Structure formats: structure tokens, C-alpha cells
TrEMBL record:
Pfam families: Kinetochor_Ybp2 (PF08568)
InterPro entries associated with the record: Glomulin/ALF4, YAP-bd/ALF4/Glomulin
Protein known as: Aberrant root formation protein 4
Gene Ontology molecular function, alphabetical: ubiquitin-protein transferase inhibitor activity
GO cellular component, one term: cytoplasm
Annotated PANTHER family: GLOMULIN
Organism: Aegilops tauschii subsp. strangulata
Length: 354
């Protein structure tokens, strides 16, 4: 790898040679870097050299193709090296930013989801490294957003927000491993900062309205397949709220805005039911830990106090009533499957109040 880097950096190397090598080297370089820990920095340097000296659009295609190459050994480390290269490349894109992002993100999220499904508790920190690399992709898109204006900026911010929510849902599924739960919370915090940059609010996350608004901005016929890669965005919105209540750093970052959003939801009948219905995504899923579900129930009980029943009976319309069955079913699942008596009692209390 050092010989390759020395050649690329030497005066004898020309653009034609670099372009030719960029087609072939990223995959084997990333594989070597992943296999041998002391080679990772030089592997990153080589791929970043290609990103800086070759066509950014070509490099996006080359690196996305490399992402899809299955690697049996140290697959997460291999992906981290490639994701770092993609982040460096995205920053260099000069035009058609949104179109390029729409090519890259589905490839990234697809391989991340596949890779995480193979992770076990022993490889939990590898998953955290992978999410940190994916965060650098988000940071690169954030830099793109800063250069754009008007509806193009709004569209790219919507994409970035949905990308952050999808990753928050995937991170949260890894927090089932107790040894990395606190670290997962720190990663979620960094993704939450991207959400705030994109204009998402705790009120909009509580009710799900910010997610609906973001997807509406992208709901064109040609975007249908693209939106599929954000299938856990609603989960992510609910999970941001849950992590804010259970992780000290998240709570400090949210500050008074989170408490204000909770109060506004409690005081508004329609928003209250929107927020209640959002918890079904977490409570009905097998992907999230019992700790996350327990904090979800705590928040749900905060929203549905004893006095709200009489207030809301006359205001619930039919569409909302049909959605209530979904949250009731989700709470019932927790009540049946929860591993301890205290949580089952908590779920039963939530079921009665809803």
C-alpha cells in the first residue's frame, strides 16, 4: 500500500494512470486496510487521493460499486474505509448535488442494513464505527446544503433529515447490546444535530409531522424507489424523543425545547393523539431493546394522564380512531412479552389510559 501511495504521489504519475488505477484499486485497497489494522490509515489516504484527483462523479460510482462487494472478513472495517472515501468525494461535487446524493444514499443504507443484521454483541463497537462513518456522509451532505438556496436547499435538507432518522433507527437496533448502549446514545446525539440543522423540531418529531412534511417534499413519481430506503424514518422520529428522555447528553442538548414540545402536545388534543400513535413504531417492533420500550411507555404515560379521557372523547375523529387500534395492539404485545413484572404492569397501565 505504501508503494502504491508513493507511485500516485510521484511526479511520474499522470492523470491517465490515476484514472485507470482508480477503477481497479479501491476494492483491494479497502480490503487490505480492513484486514490489517495498521494499514487502515494508508488505505484511507490512497482512496482520498483518488477522490481528490479523479472525477468526483466517477469516484462516487466506483465507491458505490465497491460497497456492494461482499467481504467475509472485517466487513465493517472495509465499509468504513469506503464510506470515508465517499464522504471526501461528496464534498467535491460541484453540480447536480441532489441527483448524486440520490444515487449514493440507497447504496449506503442498503449495505449498512445488511451488515448490521450480521453483527452480534461481540462486534458491537464495529457497528458503532460504521455509524460514525455514515455520520461523516451526513456531515458532507450538510456542507452541500450550506451552498444551496431556496427549494433545492429544502429538498436536500429533507433528504438529509430522513437519512439521519433512518440511521437513528438502525443505531437504536444495535443498542440491544448492553456494552455499547451509552455509545449508541452519543451517536444518536450527533445525528440529532443534523436533524436540527435541517429544520426538524421536537414537536414535529413527537407528532411525526416533520417526517410527513419531508417525505411530501420528495414525493414525486421518480422518487418512489428512493423513499423506500428511508423505511424506518418514523421509527427514527419516535426514537429521537425516547433517547432524549433516557440519555443525559441528549437531554442537555434538547434543553427547554423538549419540555416545551411535550407540554404543547399535552395541551392540544389532536397533537396528543398524533404523538400517542407515533409510539406504535417502537413498541410493535422486535428491533429495539426493552430499555427503549420501557422509556417509550414512560413517555406515553406522561402524555396520557388520567384526566385526558373525558377531554378527548368528543374530539377523536374516525381516522384517528382506526390508528388507535394499532397503538393498543403494540402496547398489548409489550404487556404479553415483557421480561419483567414491572414493565408488564407499566404496559397495562398505558393500555388502560389510551
Amino acid at each position: 500500500l505504501r508503494e502504491v501511495h508513493a507511485f500516485l504521489s510521484s511526479p511520474s504519475s499522470n492523470q491517465m494512470a490515476m484514472d485507470a488505477l482508480s477503477l481497479e484499486l479501491p476494492k483491494p485497497v479497502a480490503k487490505l486496510g480492513a484486514r490489517m489494522g495498521n494499514c487502515r490509515d494508508i488505505a484511507r489516504t490512497i482512496i482520498e487521493f483518488f477522490a481528490s484527483n479523479c472525477s468526483p462523479r466517477d469516484m462516487l460510482c466506483i465507491l458505490c460499486e465497491a460497497l456492494d462487494t461482499p467481504v467475509a472478513l472485517n466487513g465493517s472495517a472495509y465499509l468504513v474505509i469506503l464510506l470515508d472515501g465517499l464522504a471526501s468525494t461528496l464534498i467535491l461535487i460541484q453540480r447536480r448535488h441532489i441527483e448524486q446524493v440520490k444515487v449514493v444514499l440507497p447504496a449506503i443504507l442498503r449495505v449498512m442494513h445488511a451488515n448490521l443484521s450480521e453483527c452480534d454483541e461481540e462486534h458491537g463497537m464495529s457497528a458503532v464505527d460504521l455509524f460514525s462513518a455514515a455520520l461523516r456522509i451526513g456531515n458532507a451532505i450538510q456542507e452541500m446544503c450550506k451552498t444551496m438556496v431556496n427549494h433545492r436547499k429544502e429538498e436536500l435538507c429533507s433528504i438529509l433529515g430522513l437519512y439521519a432518522l433512518q440511521n437513528i433507527a438502525l443505531v437504536s437496533s444495535e443498542s440491544k447490546h448492553q456494552n455499547i448502549q451509552s455509545t449508541c446514545g452519543s451517536v444518536v446525539l450527533q445525528y440529532s444535530k443534523l436533524l436540527m440543522f435541517c429544520g426538524f423540531t421536537y414537536l414535529g418529531l413527537l407528532t411525526g409531522n416533520d417526517v410527513t412534511s419531508a417525505t411530501t417534499k420528495l414525493s414525486k413519481e421518480e422518487d418512489d424507489n428512493f423513499l423506500d430506503c428511508f423505511s424506518f424514518a418514523m421509527d427514527g422520529a419516535s426514537l429521537v424523543v425516547v433517547w432524549t428522555s433516557m440519555h443525559d447528553d441528549m437531554s442537555k442538548y434538547a434543553g427547554a425545547e423538549f419540555e416545551s414540545a411535550l407540554k404543547e402536545v399535552q395541551d392540544n388534543c389532536i397533537r396528543k393523539w398524533e404523538a400517542i400513535n407515533m409510539f406504535r413504531y417502537v413498541l410493535s417492533s422486535v428491533n429495539y431493546s426493552w430499555a427503549i420500550k420501557s422509556h417509550s411507555l414512560d413517555l406515553l404515560l406522561t402524555l396520557v394522564d388520567d384526566k385526558c379521557s373525558e377531554e378527548t372523547n368528543d374530539h377523536v375523529d374516525f381516522p384517528c380512531s382506526t390508528q388507535i387500534f394499532a397503538i393498543l395492539k403494540a402496547i398489548e404485545r409489550v404487556m404479553i412479552a415483557a421480561p419483567d413484572t414491572l414493565m408488564r404492569k407499566k404496559a397495562f397501565s398505558a393500555l388502560k389510559r389510551v
